[in-house]
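Protein record

Derive tokens from sequence
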Amino acid sequence: MMETSAAILALVAVGAYLLGSVPFGIVITRALGLGDLRKIGSGNIGATNVLRTGNKGAALATLLLDAGKGGIAVALARLVGGADAALLAALASFLGHLFPVWLGFKGGKGVATYLGTLLVLDWRLGLATCATWAVTAGVTRISSLSGLVAVALTNLWVVVLQDSAMLALSLALSMLIYWKHWPNIQRIAAGTEPRIGAKE
């Protein structure tokens, strides 16, 4: 049963989407004079592609801000509307990152924003997912593969916690992440996916 009025949920959805759609990777690289991120490397607006500019600080800032916008959206929504509003904010901010209105709905792939929403929705899930990403990245040095493995295993952690509402959200976001990563999946299968820090 919904805890929150339709009007508040609508405001949460719009606000979270707009926050999620802020393309921090592009903002940071332009501010530092690193060029148009969409014309660098893979053309993606996320932290992994920012790293291909050679500026580790910019990449870290992009990672933290992309995760932070998802986490902040969830935290604010929970304050004003409760648990159902928080879940809606997670979805809306994630969709904002994937399909930002400011960039003609051509955005990032969502892993950092996904992690940020998880950390605030349930810190246990967030930490488990971050740990899975870190271990996989340490072994493979492939950012996309690390994200895909972490996202897939998150659904298992949710099943263990027996949270049906969270599982529905997690499955939906996972499918979107895998869809956005389809070119990466093809390169992983072909053995041509760039490793972390490599320039394309």
